[in-house]
Structure formats: structure tokens, C-alpha cells
Amino acid sequence: MAFSESTAVANITAFIIAFINFAVAEAGFSNEGTTVDGDDTIYHIAKGGVYWNFMTDNFTQNVVQYGIYARMSFAKVVISANMKNTNPQAGQRQPSRMSYYGNTGPFVKYFLYTEGIAVHCVLQIFTGVFTHLSFGNMIKFGTWTGGEYLTANSAFWVTGGVYNNWEYQRQNLLFDGGSCNLDSFTYPVGYVRHIVGTQSDDQTDFARIGFITVNNQQCRMVSPAYNVKSLIEDFIDICGPIGYNVRAPLFPVYVRMIEVVTGRWILSGYVPGARVLNVLHLTGESIVENDWIVFPMIQKTGGDPYLAPLSDYWGVAYKREA
Fold first, then answer.
1. N or C: lower Cβ tally within 10 Å for the chain?
2. Nearest Cα to 267, choosing from 106, 138, 171, 115?
3. Domain assignments of the chain as residue spans, ordered by start
């Protein structure tokens, strides 16, 4: 395990450069440089023949929102418009996006964690408000081709200046995918690479995280989505932390995918170095079980919905070891 924690972040470019350098130094990625297209700069890293591409941009849905657009591909994405559209080239069908809402910097601080193959990035936007980006390789169960993944928090809907909370179906949480049933680049989601049959190196090789099947592919992780309760959510909701024992169980981020031939769900592996938990009685940056650092998914209920969505009791913990 390795970690890096800053005291302040001047702007989003500094954050991108920091997590790229961290991924190269600690998690086996190669820095593939940058591509400039007009006013946009696209950053590229790679590992095992897969590229992760990152670019900042904004969009408007009642208010101006900002985010890091990201996508996995089999070649560098060198056109900025293709970072935001559906299926522009070989790679994941839609973009992923890490929202940092209405703040363009400076930011409070960042936190970076890895156990060696997956990189977990946390950006503290305001006091009590966080956003997350996670990418790299999952630990696979069995022998199959793929396992690279990309997921992030992505807000969308704002009503009367207030961000809809985490339950709204077009919001997307880390390790979730939301419950949006629209196959549109407007609603960024996460992906896991999952080769179907012979390797084709195109967008059919990526399973969308969420609640619709695209290209005979579908993936779910912890799934705390609108109107859909997962087993993990039930455990987190019921088991703690509660006043009786003040315990906060840490649940692995298991990955489930559809086995295309039979159409059955299979337990495919898990994301290393991360856990999900109930943070009702915990504050951001709490330490549990000695070396797990806890954050809210976005901000706990009671925060300011004009700044970012409320994520209720949902939290994530990353293992912090030197």
C-alpha cells in the first residue's frame, strides 16, 4: 500500500497531475503524455494495453457544473469532443465523470491511495464535501480477460439551485452506476473491461456499471441506487454503526457481471483497497480499524445541498498503509 495526502490544491490541473504521478510511481501505470485539442488538454496513462484518458470540462443543467471527464480505451483519445460523447472510438461506450460541482479551485486537499494495482483518488471540495475517482485493476475471481475499471461520483440534476440527493436516478456514485435506464453520454457512468468471446478491442468489451444491459454487458458493484436495495445496502443500513454497539462494518466492493452465454450473474471479483460503510456516526477522515480512512461519498445529510448532493449515510473507506 501507498498513500499521498496534500494540505491544499490550487486547481483541478494540479489534482490530475498529482494522481497521474502517483499512479505511475505506485501502481504500475505509464505516463503517456498529453494531447492538446483547441483549449483542452487530455492526459493519458496506460497499463496492459489499456489507456485511461482524463480531461476537464463543464456542462450546464440549471447551474454550471464542472468535472473531470474520463474514459478507458485501446488507444489515446486525442479529440476533446470524443471524451464526452457516446462510443467515439474503441473503448468504453460512454464517458465517466468525476464532478467537482461549482468549485474550480482552490480546493481544501486531496487524498490518494493504492495497494499496487488500483488507484483511489479523493478531492475535498469544501469543508465536509468530497468527491471520488477510482481506476485501475480489480482482483478477479477465476480466469477471464479484463478487469480494468473506472468509476467516479457524477452529479447531474439540480432543481432550484439544489442538487438532487444520491437517490436520484441520474446521479452516479462511486462503485455504483446509478439506476438511470438511459443509454446516453449525458449521464456518465463507470465501466469494467470484460472481454466477451474473442478479443475485439472495441466498445463491446466494456461492461457498464449500473442497471441496464448494453451490448449484452452489464456490471454491478455495491449498487446503492434509487429504488433498488442491494444486499450490501441492507447490511449497511441495518447493521451499523448503531447506538447499541457503535460498530461500522467495512464491506468489500464486490463486482458482479453478466456471463453473456448463459445470461446469469457471476461474482467476478472485487476492487482492492476500498470498502463501503455507514458513516452516520463518523466524520470525514476518521480512522477505523487502525488503517482505514473514512469519507462520505459526497456529503452527509445535514450538509448544504446548494454546494453538492447529499449522500446520506453512504461512505467509503480506503486502506492507508505506507
1. C
2. 138
3. 2-319
Please, which contacts does 242-251 make with residues 24 or more away whose CB atoms are closer than 8 Å?
246/281, 248/277, 248/278, 248/279, 248/281, 248/282, 248/288, 248/294, 249/277, 249/278, 250/275, 250/276, 250/277, 250/288, 250/289, 250/292, 250/317, 251/222, 251/275, 251/276, 251/277
Q: pTM score, two decimals?
A: 0.90
Pairing of strands 40-47, 206-208: unpaired
* 233 secondary structure, DSSP code: H
Of these ranges, 2-6, 20-24, 151-155, the one predicted with the greatest mean pLDDT is 20-24
Q: Above 60 in pLDDT, residue 247? A: yes
Query: Distance between CA 319 and CA 241 in Å, rounded?
Result: 19
Centre a 10 Å sphere on the Cβ of residue 6 and count the other Cβ atoms it contains: 17
